[in-house]
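so my prof wants the structure for this chain in the tokens format not the other one, which i didnt know existed until like an hour ago. anyway here's the sequence
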Amino acid sequence: MSGRPIVWTIAGSDSGGGAGIQADLKTMNALGVHGCSVITALTAQNTTQVSEVEYPSPGILNAQLEALAADLPPTAIKLGMLGNAESIRIIAKTLSSLNCPIICDPVMVSSSGHMLLEQDAIPAMIDRLFPQVHLLTPNLTEAALLTGRTLNTTEDIELAAQDLLSNGVPSVLIKGGHANGNGHGSDNFSQDYWTNGHEHAWLTSPRQSSRHTHGTGCTLSAAIAACLGLGFDDRDALVIAKAYVNQGIRNAPHVGAGNGPLAHLGWPEAYEDMPWLTSNQEAAIERLYFSDCGETPLGFYPIVNRLAWLEQLLPLGVSTIQLRIKDLSGEDLEREIAQAAALAKQYQCRLFINDYWELAIKYDAYGVHLGQEDLNDADLRAIHQAGLRLGISTHCYSEVARALAVHPSYLAIGPIFPTTTKAMRFAPQGLEAARRWRRTLPYPLVAIAGIFLENAQAVLETGVDGIAVVRDIVNSPDVPAQVHRWLNLFEKKNAAKPFSLC
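here's what i got, hopefully its the right format
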């Protein structure tokens, strides 16, 4: 426990152990934070029903808050079942003196239909808590009760989120796990809508058939709070939390006669649990599948800025290369790409054109490589229809989730180490993250940033399929000799037992 971030849960107790405080603490422990609890309600419940609810006195509620504030200050807070207006006023007063993200799961109705929030608590929640909350996570029923809207369509959900933002909440996640697909999505998918008023995204996963989903909302909000407490940003926290819930449903134990609880199995790493991110709901369902890059690993992958580099490197045996031009335009740019594509075909080299997807299609390059900022502008369907491969840069969980929406030909992951090649807003991921992504993702992975021949062996041992290299080639005093060393490194790797995800 030493050194773990502290995250509070302020919620009701579930005597059945599947939701509320119990689910929150299991989640927080599984994700590596120390959970502290303030109990706002005692419930008599099991997997089939909530039979009785009793609230603690204002004095003991306030004493719990004061005890934690005095000794265990939080890095994030999750709010769940709050019960009544008096409790909300006490909690809001304490929260006003704390400086950390607050995730509010406005628990109002149990899955069995029992009201868990008194009527006078709703205006108190809106007036006193919402202005202090960092993220609100209602399900469809709760969003409808809070906004007075009937949520039957995608547009209804997006408008309801805007209504909630107008109440002073900085960001909203409307959970669609219980939707039946009628008018807002598909029976085959579970889709959540997130927005902060400036950005928005749909998080999508295959819908699972298990009835053991008791505590999914509590678990999701607790997981988001845990991830924020660990230092992840909002989008990463959403992706990790949804993967954690997916993992829990998929492995749920069969407990009780009704809707049983989730499993709590630690950090989510299975590919099948990873959600994907899209800017609209339809794109999440109509995913593209780009062709793979063949049986030969991507291997040594130089990134260069001129045709002249291809003329020097391809005769040396380089079989994968990226042309990344940042300082040409018009006819000069087109001529450079056209000649590079022709030369790559001559040497049967897999040439990826960075960004300029229209010219890559026009001159029949092997593939296109896109950064995250270019994904929304590029016509991915045109690239797909042209038969080009697609590589995508990723730096974090949410960017991987964005890439998974289109099943790319490969994923570039980085920065592995610090780099001066370009300004980066992301801290180095390091070797352990590369190993984790290898365990999770069934795609070819290219490691990038800060990699030189001296540290390349350690990178290869993570299981990546290729290494992108810039400075170690273009700044080399003896380019042919350095290329030969890199190619030899990969020949030794390929001669060894191939890496397997099994």
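also thought this was worth mentioning. DSSP finds 19 helices and 18 strands in the chain.
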